[in-house]
């Protein structure tokens, strides 16, 4: 039964929404509008001379081979981060849901990485995989694996993928665990009585019922990989070596803040926004069909 909330004053709902609307307007809507405007302009780094150039910035970006290299790196990076953050989180959530004792301590321990800032998470992985002093690098050398992310672009990409995925696992784990705990135990007990094994129960009952959660985390994970991994990359590799880890969001930063090419940077930010919106629409158009809402 739905209950209708009646406010004593007609302006009270607007007053309650005003802080959030102000934050959205100042920190999201206004900067986005400024970026779109700057994408059609050419200006000096200090904003003293502004010239309207129309689509010239977009033409320069779309004809730059380095931009398409960054697109390929971004797609590889985002796909790897999303998958590596989803699969271990699901496995750990299933393990935590099966625990009868110590579940709270186990869950709390797995949530710790989410509370760490991206830059700090990147520095932790940088120390572990540092070719000179890293513990993991020492083990790799003992195993005969040549590892040097400061010189090898592939090693650097692997490092930032692992660091970024590790940061997101805790977030995915929390949602998967909540989804598992919302599944009626009677369904699993009935399937067990009918002779279904653990894997069969997971494949035919648990995972289909988790599909809304999985789809939500897939969309969120893609957005995270495209935007929120900037701090990790900046702390670990700064886009190097030789731009091997320069994904689109970092290229926007480098061209705008370091190279001071504001017009091209703004055009890239608009294209990046359109790319993410397009990929999200594709997910809703094709992947959501396989989602089973209870």
Low-confidence stretches: none
Mean pLDDT equals 87
Structural class: mainly alpha
Helix content range: over 70%
Sheet with the most strands, sense and barrel status: 2 strands, antiparallel
DSSP summary: helix tally: 13
Order of helices and strands: HEEHHHHHHHHHHHH
Strand order of the largest sheet: 1-2
Backbone CA Rg: 23 Å
- Structure summary, number of beta strands: 2
Oligomer state of the chains in this structure = single chain
- Shape summary: globular
CA(first)-CA(last) distance: 19 Å
Q: DSSP strand (E) fraction?
A: under 5%
Give an overview of the whole structure.
It is a single chain. This protein has 294 residues and is an all-alpha fold. The protein contains 13 helices and two strands; from the N terminus they run H-E-E-H-H-H-H-H-H-H-H-H-H-H-H. The protein has helices spanning 12-38, 56-62, 65-98, 103-111, 118-128, 135-142, 153-181, 185-193, 198-209, 211-228, 230-236, 248-258, 262-287; strands at residues 41-43, 50-52. It has a two-stranded antiparallel ribbon. A hairpin with a 6-residue loop joins strand 1 and strand 2. It is globular.
